UniProtKB/TrEMBL annotation:
SUPFAM superfamilies in the cross-refs: Phosphoglycerate mutase-like (SSF53254)
Pfam families given in the database record: His_Phos_1
Protein's recorded name: Histidine phosphatase family protein
Keyword terms, alphabetized: Hydrolase
InterPro entries: His_Pase_superF_clade-1 (IPR013078), His_PPase_superfam (IPR029033), Mito_Ser/Thr_phosphatase (IPR051021)
GO molecular function: hydrolase activity
Classification lineage: Bacteria, Pseudomonadati, Pseudomonadota, Betaproteobacteria, Burkholderiales
Native species: Hydrogenophaga crassostreae
Length: 223
């Protein structure tokens, strides 16, 4: 059996003009994850990641912390959906970035609603693929891991949407349950699959073993 580790990127810049940029804390989360793996002697046979800046920066942090030297394979199908486009598809008048707790709550309520409609095929957010095409991008990465790296340890660095979609696919969950998972995935968290020639199986979901010390209590984030 092989093992696949799916890591969500470190904390990005939620509420800023450019979300696709790790915060200082997000960079620290990634480096700490690399250190954690290095301390335990964990090495990977292959690395895949999306093409977004926050994916690249997270991998660079992990590589720095662990002193890894392999080059990752970029896989556009592991890129996140466009949350802003999803929200605007159901509420075109939204202009301001969420800056308050009330604003955050309203944003994620609209995002959940928009994701449900996108998955159901009732809206087509601008610049985004259909939901079946998004799922295909994620499952093609899983198929690549299974067929090209049998029995190996593989790392994927991606985002909450693709990771929850991968889990939903493996567990045959409904779109609504997949959204629930998506909203709970924490920054730099690890989701682990075992895989054989025919399928993947979920082992752990959304864990933060590298931050499981009192000194890192303030490093646990979700945005």
């Amino acid at each position: 059996m092989g093992t696949l580790y799916l890591v969500r990127h470190g904390q990005a810049s939620f509420g800023a003009a450019d979300y696709d940029q790790l915060s200082a804390l997000g960079q620290q989360q990634a480096v700490q994850l690399g250190r954690y793996w290095a301390e335990r002697g964990l090495r990977f046979d292959a690395v895949m990641m999306g093409t977004l800046r926050r994916h690249v920066q997270t991998w660079e942090g992990i590589r720095e912390g662990a002193d890894f030297d392999m080059e990752p394979l970029s896989w556009p199908g592991l890129n996140e959906y466009d949350g802003e486009a999803v929200v605007r598809a159901i509420c075109p008048d939204v202009v301001d970035k969420p800056l308050t707790p009330e604003g955050y709550k309203r944003h994620f309520h609209m995002l959940r609603d928009g994701l449900s409609q996108w998955m159901g095929g009732t809206i087509s957010p601008r610049g985004m693929p259909t939901y079946p095409a998004f799922v295909e991008g994620v499952t093609s990465a899983l198929d690549h891991v299974r067929t090209q790296h049998p029995g190996r340890k593989v790392l994927i660095v991606s985002s909450g949407g693709p990771i929850s979609t991968a889990v939903g696919h493996v567990l045959a969950l409904s779109p609504e349950r997949t959204i629930d998972l998506n909203m709970r995935i924490r920054n730099s968290s690890i989701t682990e699959f075992q895989f054989g020639p025919k399928r993947h199986a979920l082992v752990t979901f959304n864990t933060l073993p590298h931050l499981d010390q009192l000194q890192f209590a303030d490093w646990v984030t979700s945005a």
